[in-house]
Design goal:
4-stranded antiparallel β-sheet; 43% helix; 335 residues; 6-stranded antiparallel beta barrel; rod-shaped; alpha+beta
């Protein structure tokens, strides 16, 4: 009897194990039907390179590696001596152009006064000519006096024409001088703008990374000094590389969960933001050549961008490049 009881007990235990195993297997199978998971996922984010717009010698470096900075904080300063000289030269040229403009205004006023004087002389000469002509017509004056009055009227008329032409020439010169003044002002503004480029600030709030700038270093325009990495949740995301066979039911807007290898006990929630337009191989520098005779089918992976929820990482624990595990709930339709 004892042997028979042990036999039934063993069969019962075995049956329970089979049922539990089947339940676990069904649950895992059902879970895998709804949730698609990959460990080929990494934290990505925006990286802002900081550089000068002009070349020169670095005078100050105000940041260090991994230092937090705010938007607008001064990162580095160039020696501004050459730019200060350029500003002084531009200011001198502007002063010279303004002086020339003032001289032209004075010349125009002088020639306009000459026009007024010449017009008065012409009016007087015309009046005198009319009086002399009337007397000469009555033969009360000799022809010599009449000829002299005619000549004086012609000379006065010529002086008026010359004065008017001088005014026109001065006004044309004034336009040229005004152009020189405008050009000198533009040159001064450009010099001041170039001078302002001697100070470079952080474009965003974040952490300094890949710092290469040192005091005394001569840098070229556009040469990277450091990078600023913002860790706000709008600036980082997860790029999960799913197999193409897993993407049948993945849609934009579906919920996702992320575990970082740095702390697998913490779950970060998010949503599917987008699917890449092509696989990683399609955008490689040397894309694979599949039109060959020895072709072997390889399952491709498509990057899926996961947006982390704003409240999921308030302490900015996620860092760029960290390996994560990503799981997408495909039971929803998404957007």
């Amino acid at each position: 009897m004892m042997a028979k009881a042990k036999k039934w007990l063993s069969l019962g235990i075995l049956l329970v194990l089979v049922v539990v195993g089947a339940a676990i297997g069904y649950a895992r199978w059902r879970h895998n039907q709804i949730f698609v998971m990959t460990e080929n996922a990494y934290v990505q984010g925006d990286v802002y390179m900081v550089s000068f717009k002009v070349s020169g010698k670095i005078l100050e470096v105000n940041v260090r590696e991994n230092q937090p900075v705010k938007e607008g904080d001064v990162v580095a300063v160039l020696d501004p001596h050459d730019h200060d000289l350029a500003i002084s030269s531009a200011e001198a040229k502007l002063a010279e152009a303004v002086s020339g403009l003032a001289t032209d205004h004075a010349m125009i006023a002088q020639y306009q006064a000459q026009v007024a004087a010449a017009k008065s002389e012409l009016d007087l000469a015309e009046t005198e000519l009319a009086r002399v002509a009337a007397l000469y017509k009555r033969e009360s004056l000799p022809k010599q006096n009449y000829d002299r009055a005619v000549a004086q009227e012609q000379v006065a008329s010529a002086r008026l024409d010359a004065a008017k032409k001088a005014v026109a020439a001065s006004q044309a010169k004034l336009a040229v001088s005004q152009t020189k003044v405008d050009g000198a002002k533009a040159s001064l503004e450009s010099a001041k703008l170039q001078r302002s480029y001697c100070t470079v600030v952080s474009p965003v709030a974040g952490f300094v990374s890949r710092k290469s700038a040192e005091v005394g270093q001569v840098v070229a325009a556009g040469q990277p000094l450091c990078a600023v990495v913002p860790l706000g949740l709008k600036d980082i995301w997860v790029e999960a590389n799913y197999k193409e066979t897993q993407l049948q039911r993945v849609r934009v807007g579906q919920k996702a969960r992320v575990w970082a290898d740095i702390d697998k006990g913490k779950v970060y929630t998010g949503t599917v933001e987008s699917l890449s337009a092509g696989t990683g191989g399609a955008f490689a520098l040397l894309p694979p050549e599949n039109a060959t005779g020895n072709w072997v089918k390889i399952v491709q992976r498509l990057p899926v961008r996961i947006k982390i929820n704003p409240e999921a990482d308030p302490n900015h624990e996620l860092r760029l490049g960290l390996t994560v595990t990503c799981e997408i709930d495909t039971s929803q339709d998404g957007k």
